[in-house]
Amino acid sequence: MNNRNLCLLVIVSLLSMVSCEKSEHHIIDLNPLETFKESDAPTEYLHENINFKSPWGYEKADNTSRKYPLLVSGMWGEGSKQYQSVAQKYPAFVIDYPKKSANDGQALAQWIKSAIQSGYRIDLNRIYLTGFSYGGSSSYPLSKGMANENIYFAAIIRIAGQSQPDIANEIAQQTAVWYHIGLSDTGTRVKVARNALEYMRNYACNTRAVETTNSDNITGYKRTTITLSRSGFSMFKYSEYTGMGHTSGPCYTDKSIFTWLFNHSLEYR
After folding, report:
1. pLDDT digits over 107-129, tens only?
2. Which of 225, 235, 100, 239 is nearest to 182 (CA)?
3. What is the model's pLDDT at position 186?
4. Are 35 and 94 in contact (CB under 8 A)?
5. Structural domain boundaries, residue 65
6. Residue 21: which CATH number?
7. Tens digits of per-residue pLDDT, 81-106?
8. How far apart are CA 267 and CA 254, in angstroms?
9. Into how many domains does the chain fold?
10. pLDDT of residue 72
11. CB 148 within 8 A of CB 91
């Protein structure tokens, strides 16, 4: 083998290693196992007139340099309630933010920047949002307001909502979304959900996304989920539930919902 061919072989091998490393980012453990005592329970803080809670173990000596995700629980606050069952597995700051507009999203981004400047160890790469119904509709405007401040949610759990199907390509490129809709919800909400799926399929960032479909009954309802994956990450999941109406509870019975959420980071976009 001459030197030129040898160099080409080395270059191809290195590129292959980089490609494999990137494709496996989705299995990197962003949530190391940790044990806690009662004294490690979350503390409530107040910053700029907004109450929020610290993660489990935030004050432990071993964690003084560790940054933590921020879970934003949107309108109705169902996300923060459901999160309590996994709070020790996925330690995070938690804020209830019952807001709805792009201006509110911009204000949230400014609050996050201010909280970080004040010493709260929030990981800007791992900000998450949950929203049901009105909170589902408002998840997209909040995202757009955040983007105006150059801050993005790493992932969103959106359940129903009857407006705002278009999150915009720029945000879809950064933000993963798992959209849930019951087929016994109103016709308008089902139409909005299906429109959101079509928007996602047609965004430039998803031109080369791999689409898969699977069905299951683990929530108590027959569920069909379409997934758009890029570089090994499920960037858009769309789940329709046969027989489910306007409710969020069954969606959270799937324990993988928080696993999916907390395994996203902007660091790997």
Report:
1. 999 999 999 999 999 999 999 99
2. 239
3. 97
4. no
5. 3-268
6. 3.40.50.1820
7. 999 999 999 999 999 999 999 999 99
8. 26
9. 1
10. 98
11. no
The token pair that represents 175 in the structure block: 């933000």
Residues near 29 by Cβ (< 8 Å), separated by ≥ 6? Answer: none
Q: pLDDT value at position 20?
A: 40
Single-letter code of the amino acid located at 234? S
Strand order in the sheet with 44-47: 44-47, 50-53, 93-96, 68-73, 122-132, 155-159, 176-182, 233-242, 222-230, 210-216
Does this model's pTM top 0.90? no
- Token pair 């071993």 is found at 62
Mean pLDDT per 10-residue segment, the chain (269 residues): 50 42 52 94 96 97 96 89 96 96 98 98 98 95 98 98 96 98 98 98 97 97 98 96 97 96 94
Alpha carbon separation from 35 to 54, 88, 122, 144 (Å, rounded): 16, 8, 21, 37
